[in-house]
Design a protein that fits this description.
Length: about 450
Amino acid sequence: MTKIPYKINLSEDELPKYWQNIRPYMQEAPDPFINPVTFKPCTADDLRPVFCDELIEQELDNTNKFIEIQEEIRDFYKMYRPSPLTRAYNLEKALGTPAEIYYKFEGTNTSGSHKLNSAVAQVYYAKQQGLTHLTTETGAGQWGTALSMACGYFGIDLSVYMVKVSAEQKPYRKAVMETYGARVIPSPSDTTEVGRRILAENPGTGGSLGCAISEAMEVSMKTDNCRYVLGSVLNHVVLHQSIIGLETKLGLDKYGVQPDIVIGCAGGGSNLGGLITPFMADKLEGKNNIHFIAVEPASCPSLTRGRYAFDFGDTGQTTPLMRMYTLGSGFMPSPNHSGGLRYHGMSPIVSKLYHDGMMEARSVEQTKVFEAATMFCRCEGTLPAPESSHAIRVAMDEAIKCRETGEKKVIVFGLTGTGYFDLAAYQAYNQGTMVDYVPTDEDLEKGFATLPKVEY
Ligand SMILES: Cc1ncc(COP(=O)(O)O)c(C=O)c1O
């Protein structure tokens, strides 16, 4: 039998030429977006003032299983893709587990995460449409950095609203984004009406992704030749991220490896949705029985403690309504160290798959996450992002279970990025000052009270 190498690398020629769309495989597609004024499903025209035309088409496409990746996007991808799929031999040994552990590493580009996979596609379509400006939000900073890189490459002006607490925790993120040519504004800010309103109501707030989205959307609507772009949650972002799963499957297939468990961290659901797409498509067609696990922070538990309801994507309540697992757009997550997972909602695709019983969700506390991250970096070398480390935690827990049962399961997880900008978090963990935040039921009720009453 061929020995499986530490790194399964694909050649440039093997870079997928199509993204895979999970929706046509689902028995029932996720509910359509609802216009919050008419309470009717959103049409492409409803979305046109905010989003790029091609992205709207992809967003509403529940039919085509494969969508071509344009050559210009593939050429950009080739600078950092195919990304490595690594067999975690060293971690397996340290855990003393009979399980096989693999991780798909998306942190090999400067932005340090998978976010670039969608950023380059979104900016390419904006450029094709003749747009000159884009706005966005960023939590951890990875999406803002990725979009800055893509905008720098295609020559598009970019404003990034960065969640204030993350901007304070990671000042060098701002420097990187500015180097690529973007403007970075900590959110909430006084540059928008919605920002001023949020600040007036809650002056000490550290912000949230929901606030930053509201601000970025407001600016895009008020700026000529400008659109808003989002780094997660939406169907087209999950579509672009399917490149992660397609490459993973191709790599595993080369060695005849079939996963038993596939694990991803879940903030807005894009890396998880993308990683699982080809495996889930097969599961939906009855070709496998893989166990999928979404991992979220205990401090922001949208899948494990949220409600499956129509909700706004932003705190200012300006987006279309999406049916998703949500803590309510008014939920203010505590300032934990995984900025990219501090979002009140979840991708409608991931939410629907979870609601239909196609996957499990687990929440984990941040000290346990950093314990896993520390062990991982000592064994495998790579310093993982706190977000990614949620997946590491559960992969390790599953491998430890295998040690106890003697099962030789194949565990695959998404290592979405690196943690070089998260060293304040590592420092807090190392010094023993990191604390866990778990919202009480009362805290959650306050968020649920902000859910809109939707008759659809
Ligand atoms: C490294 C990393 N992993 C995961 C996430 C979570 O996002 P998503 O659930 O859309 O993949 C983020 C978001 O910022 C991130 O930066």
